[in-house]
Design a protein that fits this description.
Elements: E1 3-11, E2 19-27, H1 29-36, E3 59-61, H2 71-74, E4 78-83, H3 89-104, E5 110-116, H4 120-129, E6 135-138, H5 143-147, E7 155-159, E8 165-169, H6 176-183, E9 197-199, E10 212-218, E11 226-230, E12 234-241, H7 242-250, E13 257-259, E14 267-274, H8 279-293, E15 296-312, H9 316-319, E16 330-334, E17 337-343, H10 345-356, E18 360-362, E19 370-375, H11 384-395, E20 397-415
Helix pairs in contact: 7-8
């Protein structure tokens, strides 16, 4: 028996912070019981250095005949487990990077297993449309997801040659050099994955409240990330950082937002209550609350620069594979992260132009829709060279200087300037 929750999950997501998006999560019977008694989910990722839970219940696809995912068969190999789903947009966007890692590492020393808990027919149909390198494991019972404490995806678990947990992280932040270091028994500082807690509303959460209210407050520094869905009035988010708040409520991946000031540190609680309020009004109220609470302002900026040309190389046909996503187009740039979901080459040019703050013209001649997601190592140095270093090996594309000057408009996110109170708001001083 299972239950699905829709939560907002911080995605790739970002090296220092993660992007926040909505995904559906499936919980096991344990999670269902916990929800019914209105306590937080107790699922937890396995501890670093602990023995990896067994994988014997997996049905393997794309594996050699007779292959087994048990400890004895995988002993001596670095094992990378990628927990994903065909409905998970960030999972699909990460597949090109996963494929690149598989292609660049020795299969005798490294084993990649992408684990999904959907019906095997659904997964097999997906794999006919989208190449996914390595083995694919079907966890129809949900035992592997539960054993590894995975309640959000994508989640990546790295296991060393002795069968010990090295890290629980996200595939977008993992490099071939990192995995090679694990194989050589060297220490690697992997970015930790967020273990998101979901819970049912408590009696206090669902008590009669205001018909229209948005509250943004500071959270404790050690607050756990959690979300409470209380229909029909809204969703509450607790222990959320400024990046998550801003990317979520302003949908930065659909707009050309460029951050010119660092966002505030710390964690926040956002509580929302709306009854019979139009969606447009709800969105505007939440956006204004976040903007005011974080002391930010958004200003449009139009720049005219010489455009770059996005063109294909001989490797494009080999590296590009059509999108298998059933979601609407998702495109955007934020903090060094470039994402394209079910988008055309024109959409990719838009994304690159946002990051570069320079016009990009699509002259690839490539039709169809594609997925891509990559992050630059230095988010403060987004330039043509750093982009080409990623575009060429992953997508077989490159940027070259053009001759045409074109305008591009971005929305700058800055800290609000402190202003002195006007004469009308100053307290009058009464002379004796």
């Amino acid at each position: 028996m299972s239950v699905y929750y829709v939560i907002r999950l911080k995605r790739e997501e970002m090296q220092r912070r993660k992007m926040h998006i909505r995904v559906a999560l499936r919980h096991s019977l344990i999670a269902l019981i916990l929800a019914l008694v209105e306590v937080p989910s107790l699922w937890a990722h396995p501890a670093k250095g602990a023995p990896a839970p067994p994988l014997y219940s997996l049905q393997l696809l794309q594996a050699p005949s007779g292959a087994r995912a048990d400890r004895a068969s995988l002993k001596g190999k670095v094992v990378v487990l990628e927990f994903w789903a065909t409905w998970c947009s960030p999972c699909i966007a990460s597949i090109p990077h996963l494929n690149q890692l598989v292609a660049s590492l020795d299969p005798a020393k490294f084993q990649f297993i992408s684990i999904d808990d959907e019906d095997s027919k659904v997964v097999q149909t997906f794999l006919t449309r989208k190449k996914m390198s390595g083995w694919v494991g079907i966890d129809s019972s949900g035992k592997v997801f539960a054993a590894y404490g995975v309640n959000s995806r994508p989640t990546t678990v790295i296991i060393d040659g002795n069968g010990k947990i090295v890290a629980v992280t996200e595939i977008a932040s993992v490099t071939a050099a990192d995995l090679t270091a694990v194989g050589d028994r060297r220490k690697v500082a992997f970015k930790e994955a967020e273990n998101i807690v979901t819970r049912s509303p408590s009696p206090r959460d669902i008590a009669t409240g205001p018909l229209f209210a948005v509250s943004l407050s500071k959270a404790a520094s050690d607050a756990k990330l959690s979300f409470v869905h209380h229909p029909p009035t809204g969703d509450d988010s607790f222990g959320v950082d400024a990046d998550t708040l801003f990317t979520d409520v302003y949908n930065v991946f659909e707009n050309r937002y460029v951050v010119t000031s660092p966002l505030p540190h710390g964690l926040y609680n956002l509580r929302v209550n709306f009854v019979d309020v139009p969606q447009a009004v709800r969105t505007l109220a939440i956006q204004q609350a976040v903007l005011s609470g974080l002391h930010l302002q958004i200003q449009p900026k139009t720049i005219t620069k010489r455009a770059y040309i996005l063109r294909a190389t001989d490797a494009s046909k080999k590296l590009l594979s059509p999108s298998a996503s059933t979601h609407a187009v998702k495109r955007g740039y934020w903090h060094g992260i470039f994402i394209l979901m079910n988008g055309s080459m024109d959409d990719l040019a838009y994304v690159l132009a946002t990051g570069l703050e320079t016009p990009v013209i699509n002259e690839t001649g490539i039709n169809g829709t594609y997925d891509a997601r990559f992050k630059l190592a230095d988010v403060d140095a987004v330039n043509v060279d750093s982009l080409n270093a990623v575009l060429r090996p992953i997508l077989g594309l490159e940027l070259v200087p053009g001759n045409q000057e074109m305008p591009i408009t971005v929305l700058e996110v800055n800290k609000q300037e402190e202003s002195n109170p006007s004469a009308s708001t100053k307290t009058a001083q009464v002379k004796p």
